[in-house]
Amino acid sequence: MLKFLKGVVGGSGTGVKDLPYNIGEPYSSAWGSWVHCRGTSKDDGCPVSIFSLSGSNPQDGHLAAGRNGVKRLRTVRHPNVLSFLHSTEAEVFDGAATKVTIYIVTEPVMPLSEKIKELGLKGTQRDEYYAWGLNQIAKAVSFLNSDCKLVHANVCVASVVVTQTLDWKLHAFDVLSEFDGNNPSATGPMLQYEWLVGSQYKPMELVKSDWAAIRKSPPWAIDSWGLGCLIYELFSGMKLSKTEELRNTVSIPKSLLPDYQRLLSSTPSRRLNTSKLLENSEYFQNKLVDTIHFMEILNLKDSVEKDTFFRKLPNLAEQLPRQIVLKKLLPLLASALEFGSAAAPALAALLKMGSWLSTEEFCSKVLPTIVKLFASNDRAIRVGLLQHIDQYGESLSAQIVDEQVFPHVATGFSDTSAFLRELTLKSMLILAPKLSQRTISASLLKYLSKLQVDEEPAIRTNTTILLGNIASHLNEGTRKRVLINAFTVRALRDTFSPARGAGIMALCATSSYYDTTEIATRILPNVVVLTIDPDSDVRSKAFQAVDQFLLLLKQYYEKTNSGDTTGITSTGTSSDLGNAGLLGWAMSSLTLKGKPSEQAPVATANSSTTLTSSASTPSFVSGVETPSNTIVHASSSTDLSDQPVPVSPTSTDGWGEVDNGIHEEHESDKDGWDDIEPLEEPKPSPVLASIQAAQKRPVSQPVSQSKPPVTSLRPKSAVKVPKDEDDDLWRSIAAPVPKSTSKPFTVKTAVTADDDPWAAIAAPPPTTSAKPLSAGRIRGAKPAAPKLGAQRINRTSSSGM
User: Kinase: is it a keyword of this entry (predicted)?
Assistant: First the structure.
């Protein structure tokens, strides 16, 4: 340790082997006698720059000036001064001669002249970049002259280097000395190593070595002249060879010309202070300088200024030099978002800039910031991430999604904002394929089961659509347990017509996952009911689904008759129905009027009507979205009938333990969602049980029937009554109560009409011990108008009981 400290402080060492950096290829140019090489750290491989200066005599003036430069660079710290990392001095014995080399290790930089050629900027973009670079060098010179009372005395293109973020930095401190103009007793040279500076870069008083005049001049007089030389070399594109060339102002921008001339004034006291140059010159007032300056002092801006700036930034970035945006603005923006100083609209600008990167650069420069933002508690940030997930979701690895992203995204499933719940749901279309089976079964399906009973009808609809889309990513046991129950028990019985339509289309798109028993006993009975649905779109889809599933059963029948029992194949059947609309979101959860419990079937899943919401977030208004055809349907070519169904683990996904088939006793046709039913009702009284039993009695009906009145399908009630065979399959399609002019019969019971989902269509309980009504009891009477379902009988009529 002591040897290392002696080498750093004293500028000496034991050799280049002790340098903890690897020396790479040199650049073609460097200041003075220095050699500028690329390098890397031996510890972590990070890039660095290594400057070396060699001499045969340890007392050589160049080496003495080099040691001065090492000392000054180590002690002067400023954002626009080259950052010092390490230094050492090595001695190499070559026969009788000794070679001494000084090494300085700094942050990775490139000579300005080479970087300008590499960028190849032209016109306005070149001038904007030069303005930004000159702005930085002027700040560094002003800091040395005004704050530190130091004179650089060597400002030119060769003394400027460019970082990886395209920032300009000042170095070459070999001649750097204190300004002793306030010392009246000083008589000797103020700049000990001024002989290193070329005469073309020296002002007249320095050429004459008039130290008295120099000490009477302002501290910035010499460096203001040097800054003028830098400006000339920049815009002329040539290295200054003699002082007279500075009078050629053809290439100098007109807005910068007056200040350029004041910097090169022949009178030292009249030369422009570099700090005043930045304040007065209109040349430095451009979009690039203003944008970067705003980003650098972002913490000093209020929320209104930030919001306005970041909303304009995406369009502004297109007008700025692309390399500067990607290497300078993008890191600043990512850092501001990561540490919370940037507003949510900055995310859109970050993703737009990131889209200009290659895939590898995007994963290394943008994705880490995005992953960290998922942990943000700022709801606006979370909304922005979910809204733009299609721009970066594919770049996320499965491990990152499963371990770092999904735990934070999942909090949106239970958010109080319907808008955020919907965005979270839609994001699963991209994230779910990257989740492990354990996460899907134990977490994701649990959230989706709750969203299928969400208060927002469109969220329920889109949940069904999502399940249809991710069915191919579920294992066989999970599909058997979840799909049919989610699509038939919940979706097909929803009060919202697009939800019922989505359930039908989801069944069709996943038809390859069901065997013939499930189709015949669990799917078709529920789908056939919807052929008389009040909504025409639902009826149309129901007929299509019936045709498709009957075709599958027919194919199975034909195979069994021909002796082929390998199972059914549903190749191409789902695509024939044009189910691409299933895979697009039905509509926004904020596009529906009224309370969720009062929703009427007002739109179809693929309609284009724009609706207004008065739901939980009334400030948002959005229209029905156009279905997307880009997502692949679940494959329907798999033959599953002869494959054993794997035993699924204990379910925690909200669907519960579900029967994979229908028991012979039909004792429980449960849906597996009982643990999250939104409404728990008491058991029915004996009177109500008798009403429900009366509803199940068969009623003789004539051939010609009048059209039943339109009624909305009610969701499954939590009221549980003793079941007979197949009562669950048909209860949902009981006919509505016909209107009657007579006073309806009122049953006094502890269960109110609102609590009983079947009260509106139930038959009255028998009040006598008479036998059940039959067609033979009113043979002499004129046939009444045919009605479907249980009938209320006018007890006051003479033809009554």
Answer: yes
